[in-house]
Specification:
heterodimer; A: mainly alpha; 9 helices; B: Rossmann fold; 4 domains; 8-stranded mixed beta sheet; 6-stranded mixed beta sheet; 33% helix; 23% strand; globular
């Protein structure tokens, strides 16, 4: 009897690739968790007050006591960046959370109920989707006045329709499955039907969509803050810090580049983490 | 091992078309590795049709995939032994060699032609991919019995009926003038009247082209209709092999006897319990140690649990009839003779269920019901499908009515309208007094995947506002009365087997006994023996609870067993309605007669028709 363990050698390559893929997924998913920890403890880690001048003007990175250097009025760039990352990360999570809540509620109700309720809710959603999101949020912030709270309101208002669209489709397809019909025949009440028999099925899609979206919100918020629609002047914020120091790009490049790079890293971490979560959820299905 | 003789190969003049020797295959799924085939020997002679019969999980499809050299790489197959087709090793051969064998020596027909044909290509283009000439494609399409072949070439798969699609698959399968056609459940997805045509086609292709055919099926009747020899598989081994006539008339293995007994036929007695195979009680390790069937076998003795029997020729019997069993063919023969009187499983205790009070008047009354689906086609043309057209029905309390029809006859739509899941276009439906409960075809998808069995069942008790402890007690007792362990209340549906899921669905339907139970093909996705046990349970529940049952099925034998009366539907209309036995013995409508004629019956059924 001949024992053939692996008729086609390619199989081994595939299987090790799978193991490496798993390890990569774990690393990817842990990135946003690390970012959350960094944001949580940013205030404790920061060596100096981010608003007060504490050292020489425009010290380059690596200077004694100021690892990332100082800005034009002598504030510590590391401390400002840590505070900025905290504001940027939690704001993005908040906008996505609010978007999921409003969009999910509207989408699931529309998808499960159908009929005129579906039509009305989805036309309203279409209306919001048809507007240019960034311009509308700029307009809202301009009307309400600059500030972190108003920026979040402005962005949240344009951000939920995206979720409503996606989750409505998902809820509609789940509501058409036999197990929902069976539950309906079993005499389950409507709220219970939505909460227990439809909503849990929507969660994987919602989690994947939201996690891939955090990076976009980070960029949008930084962009608005760059345009001066974020927190007012002395507060540490990555977008406005980059904008204010832009004139120094050729002389003291680190002053605008440090907060700009921080935006890039935060958004990159969000996207990589989203990819990891997507892999994890699709494999689980 | 006490016996060391190797199985004798059937004596054939010319070399075999396909040969499998000592084939063992392990597959890994979800991190668990299991031996799916455990030492299979099989030879297929030129121009021979071999029927490979087994229940789901017996490994019959894995054997087909091995012969095709198409085992999925994702399941990390490990193989030993040999499998050759036309002299080429399908296990160790190079990828290029396997591809050559697949194009020139092999043809494949799968269960669902809709998923194996490309929906975006005209069928002509798909056949021409393997024939390389349009004229040849037309010739093949005519060969497989498609009229107006030249015009059909321009059709897309969705424009053809299931039977025609399977014929197109057959045309592609024979395009390279193969020496072996492998047909994996080619008729399972088709209506009975079409089934017979496809089986005839397979025989005809063999006669005309001289190719061998390996037909894989779960139905001994299908194999008996078409095959020269039958191989019965159980738990990754061939347990009986012989000519179709021998295996069906003189089965030499207790498992074959069990399969024959669990088969429902038009001629069987309507009263009493249906024969089922005993449930599996041995663990996986115990099954591997001895004969895998021993815990379910009535003839088993202690040595059956410790020693695996090999597939050997019968001591007394014709050449080429082999069986893997320690018991003598005479003993197995007497088991076969005692079949109809035997009850396979003990019936669950249903005493805790309270029958519903009797009510006068009809339980279900349908008057002039019509159900039309309106759809939109391309270019805005509206189409209307008349699923149900002017049906009137009256079902008394406690009565059981079977509704029979082929796919597209509107039988399921009728049931859904009665359930209140689909609105009627016109006409009235009165069901009462309470909400009817329904058992679906696919039990798995009718159970919410993320809820546990206990949560699903407790939910139905919510309107009663009973304390949690009492609800849990009722859930436990209903599970036990369905023949399930109470411990599965904490398990999610995905972890249950098909038969267990259907029992959970029945438990949900009857935990508060409904006056009307609607069943939509509840057993068509189950193996014969499991189906019989679920049918037994439904009949028993009906008797004890006094429920009215509406039972939709495509299988006339099941319809006759489950219904006092049978309603036959065709294209949305009721063509015949009457007493179950008289419909079968004296059909009045030509359509009913055609349905009855198309049922694949065993040779032995005709004999047992007394």
């Amino acid at each position: 009897m001949t024992l053939i363990t692996s008729p086609v050698p390619r199989w081994r390559a595939v299987s090790t690739g799978f193991v490496a893929g798993r390890r990569l997924t774990v690393v990817l998913v842990s990135l946003p968790m690390l970012m959350t920890l960094l944001a949580l403890f940013g205030r404790i880690l920061a060596p100096h007050d981010p608003v007060q001048p504490v050292g020489g003007l425009n010290l380059p990175p690596g200077s004694d006591g100021f690892p990332l250097g100082t800005d034009a009025i002598g504030r510590d760039l590391l401390s400002r960046t840590l505070y900025g990352v905290q504001a940027s990360w939690f704001s993005a999570l908040l906008v996505v959370g609010v978007g999921l809540l409003i969009g999910g509620l509207i989408g699931v109700i529309a998808g499960v109920t159908g009929g005129w309720v579906d039509a009305v809710l989805m036309r309203v959603t279409d209306l919001f989707l048809a507007l240019p999101g960034v311009l509308v949020s700029i307009a809202i912030v301009a009307a309400l006045g600059a500030g972190l709270g108003n920026t979040l309101i402005g962005v949240s208002i344009v951000w939920w329709p995206y979720y409503a669209r996606i989750l409505r489709g998902e809820a509609k397809s789940i509501a058409a499955r036999p197990h929902v019909e069976a539950a309906r025949l079993a005499g389950i009440s409507r709220p219970r039907l939505i909460l227990r028999h439809v909503l849990p099925g929507v969660v994987p899609t919602a989690v994947v969509t939201a996690s891939l979206d955090v990076g976009n919100v980070v960029l949008l918020l930084a962009g608005l803050s760059f345009l001066g629609l974020g927190q007012s002047a002395p507060a540490p914020e990555l977008g406005s810090d980059t904008a204010r120091a832009l004139s120094q790009l050729l002389s003291e490049w680190w002053v605008p580049v440090v907060p700009g790079l921080a935006v890039l890293i935060v958004s990159l971490v969000a996207n990589l983490g989203g990819d990891g979560i997507r892999t994890l959820v699709t494999n689980r299905r | 091992m006490t016996r060391t003789t190797r199985p004798a190969s059937p004596v054939t003049a010319s070399p075999a078309t396909a040969s499998v020797r000592g084939l063992t295959v392990s597959l890994t799924r979800g991190g668990v590795t299991s031996e799916v085939l455990r030492g299979v020997d099989l030879e297929i002679a030129p121009a021979e049709i071999v029927g490979l019969v087994g229940e789901s999980g017996s490994g019959k499809s894995v054997l087909a995939l091995t012969l095709l050299g198409l085992l999925p790489e994702s399941s990390a197959p490990r193989l030993s032994g040999s499998a050759t087709v036309a002299g080429v090793d399908m296990i160790g051969g190079s990828a290029a060699e396997l591809r050559r064998v697949r194009t020139t020596e092999l043809g494949a027909i799968f269960q669902d032609p809709m998923t194996s044909l490309n929906p975006t290509m005209r069928i002509g283009a798909q056949i021409t991919e393997s024939t390389h000439s349009a004229a040849e494609s037309v010739r093949l399409l005519s060969l497989v019995g498609i009229h107006d072949a030249a015009e059909r070439m321009r059709a897309y798969p969705h424009e053809l009926s299931g039977g025609l699609r399977q014929r197109v698959m057959a045309a592609i399968a024979v395009s390279g003038t193969p020496s072996l056609i492998i047909a994996d459940e080619p008729t399972t997805a088709l209506d009975v009247t079409v089934q017979a045509q496809v089986l005839d086609l397979l025989r005809e292709l063999r006669d005309r082209m001289g190719c061998s055919v390996l037909i894989i099926t779960h139905d001994l009747g299908v194999a008996g209709q078409v095959a020269d020899r039958i191989a019965v598989m159980y738990a990754g081994r061939i347990v009986e092999l012989g000519t179709a006539d021998e295996v069906l008339r003189r089965p030499a293995n207790p498992y074959t006897v069990g399969l024959l007994g669990a088969r429902l036929s038009l001629g069987m007695h309507r009263g009493g319990l249906l024969t089922t195979l005993a449930p599996e009680t041995a663990s996986v390790e115990e099954r591997l140690r001895g004969c895998a069937y021993h815990s379910r076998c009535q003839l088993a003795t202690t040595d059956c649990a410790t020693e695996t029997p090999s597939l050997d020729p019968l001591e007394s019997g014709p050449d080429g009839h082999l069986s893997a069993c320690w018991r003598s063919p005479a003993k197995v023969g007497s088991l076969a003779a005692s079949l109809p009187a035997r009850a396979g499983v003990e019936l669950p205790d249903l005493t805790s269920l309270v029958p519903i009070p009797a009510v006068k008047g009809p339980a279900v009354e349908v008057v002039d019901l019509t159900c039309v689906f309106r759809g939109k086609r391309a270019r805005g043309r509206a189409t209307a499908i008349h699923a149900v057209q002017g049906i009137s029905l009256r079902v008394e309390h406690g009565e059981a009515l079977s509704i029979v029809g082929e796919s597209g006859s509107g039988k399921s739509t009728l049931l859904r309208v009665i359930a209140g899941l689909t609105p009627a276009t016109s006409g009235t439906v009165a069901v009462g007094p309470d909400r009817p409960q329904m058992v679906f075809q696919d039990a798995g998808s009718s159970l919410t995947p993320w809820l546990t069995v206990g949560e699903i069942l407790r939910e139905r008790l919510l309107p009663l506002r009973i304390p949690r402890a009492e609800a849990s007690r009722r859930v436990e007792s209903i599970l036990e009365s369905m023949g399930l362990s109470a411990s599965i209340a904490v398990v999610r549906p995905a972890e249950l087997s098909g038969g267990q899921r259907q029992r959970v669905v029945l438990a949900r339907a009857t935990i508060i006994p409904p006056s009307v139970l609607l069943c939509d093909e509840p057993t068509s996705a189950l193996d014969a023996s499991l189906a019989a046990s679920v049918l037994n349970l439904i009949r028993d529940l009906r008797e004890r609870l006094g429920m009215t049952v509406l039972f939709v099925t495509h299988d006339l034998a099941v319809a006759r067993l489950m219904g006092d009366r049978i309603a036959v539907m065709n294209r949305g209309r009721l063509v015949e309605l009457g007493d179950a036995d008289s419909i079968i013995t004296r059909p009045q409508d030509p359509y009913t007669a055609a349905l009855i004629a198309a049922v694949p019956e065993l040779i032995t059924d005709r004999r047992a028709d007394s």
